[in-house]
């Protein structure tokens, strides 16, 4: 039974394996098909920043240079044209094929719009066809070879329109100059290429002019080709190239011209030679100045330091040490100004370069192990390279530590106070001074150096200052606590940490917090008492002001009532006079006036019988008007009081 079970298991496992293999075999052709279908040639777009475009530009240099060199060469040296006509035609049409492919690539070359690569074929075609490059490309592909049918097969000058594709070669050379690690050397090589093409063209024109005048007609032209020494085609080209070089380099030592054509040719060559000489001198001057600027950026300016030492009359021994230090930097290419060199790059690229160069060294430091990568990336940007000469002290015992050091290359010795006895030797990857920049409480040394460290030979170190570390740790509180804990552990192992009770430290912390809270509470209480006193004083002032206003208003009411009563009496006297004019004579009026003065109430009653109803109505109206005027005065006074109270509240 057991054997049957094992057999069944094995058969089941084999069946599963076979099924898996079949599935894999079925999936492999599907994956291949998917890979082939991924690259759709109809939607193929070229990114100008990719490697393919850069490689294609380099390839296009060959057909363009071929046309610039060979067309004029075949036109002037007709013997070579006749001898290798099949080879030339083959090479011509191969170059034309490259021109056609370059035009197709132009239709499919993308461009950036708002930082994004445009992949729409219709937009790419429109942009390319509207550009000036499309016109030059089409002009360079015109089938001018059809003129062979009329002028003959040995007239390669009909292909002169192929020169119009030169802009692609300039683009390729510019791209190569930006990518090469030796731009100055490349500039010199490019200049030499231009000079070679110019001398080549001049040599071909000189040979053609000699043929026009007659070979051997005078000493200035090419010698007679009937002479066996000058009959070979190779000798003809080399002689013309040498003669052209003598003229364009202004070396001279050429036969004097005798004909007008020769004079004109030499004048033109002399003018071209002046431009060539100026371009060569200017280009070489630019190269030399750029090299000098590069040295000044990479290394400190030695000439300035030398001048300073001479002006201050520094001892020769110290001058020799300075010169040896500079010599070591130049010979071994030690760069001490990395931050100034990389400052023009974006911060992301600066971080990437610093991480690739310094992160392996930084990760060897014990206190920085297990820290965040972002913290290490920030710290590597703060590292400063330093170079120490043989016998030079990096730090001495008792000095206040402001930075820590990481050894990149070289050896340093931990020596005694006499400077001879060595306790230990530190090598590549070691570090020291890390405790002095952490400000750990309880450190017996008090952030001072505990040993003398001297460079045995030339030593390359990285220094990290205390200020840079503190500034960086402000953004990483967790890393700060971790570093302090590691520093405590290292100090306890070294026996340099004062033993303190953790409970006492916590109690001190709580007491500090309580004191801080009490101080803040007292400050708040004083502020509150000040505000209450101000409120009470303002309330008292307001009450005094209201009382004064009330006293003023009480006097105003008595004056208003007396004035109203006098007006009523005057009005009644006038009305009674009018009534007296209609009933009696003048004597009666005088008596009535006297009676009115003596008994005003009786006169009033008598007026009521003689039409007093009208006089009473008018009296009521006048009394109502007086009351309205009094009400208006009271309202204005109340408004004034309100405004004054509001102003006092605002104050």
TrEMBL record:
Ranges in coiled-coil conformation: 500-552
Gene Ontology MF term list: cGMP binding; intracellularly cAMP-activated cation channel activity; intracellularly cGMP-activated cation channel activity; protein-containing complex binding
Annotated Pfam families: CLZ (PF16526), cNMP_binding (PF00027), Ion_trans (PF00520)
Record's compositionally biased regions (Acidic residues): 581-602, 627-638
Residues covered by the Cyclic nucleotide-binding domain: 367-481
GO cellular component, one term: intracellular cyclic nucleotide activated cation channel complex
Keyword Ion transport assigned: yes
Region (Disordered): 571-651
Localization terms from the record: Membrane
Biased composition (Basic and acidic residues): 571-580, 639-651
Superkingdom of origin organism: Eukaryota
SMART domains linked: cNMP (SM00100)
Record's keyword annotation contains Phosphoprotein: no
Ranges that cross the membrane: 53-73, 191-215, 235-251, 263-284
Keyword annotations of the record: Coiled coil, Ion channel, Ion transport, Ligand-gated ion channel, Membrane, Transmembrane, Transmembrane helix, Transport
Membrane topology of the entry: Multi-pass membrane protein
InterPro entries given in the database record: CLZ_dom, CNG_cation_channel, cNMP-bd_CS, cNMP-bd_dom, cNMP-bd_dom_sf, Ion_trans_dom, RmlC-like_jellyroll
PANTHER family: CYCLIC NUCLEOTIDE-GATED CATION CHANNEL ALPHA-4, CYCLIC NUCLEOTIDE-GATED CATION CHANNEL SUBUNIT A
Entry protein name: Cyclic nucleotide gated channel subunit alpha 4
Organism: Cyprinus carpio
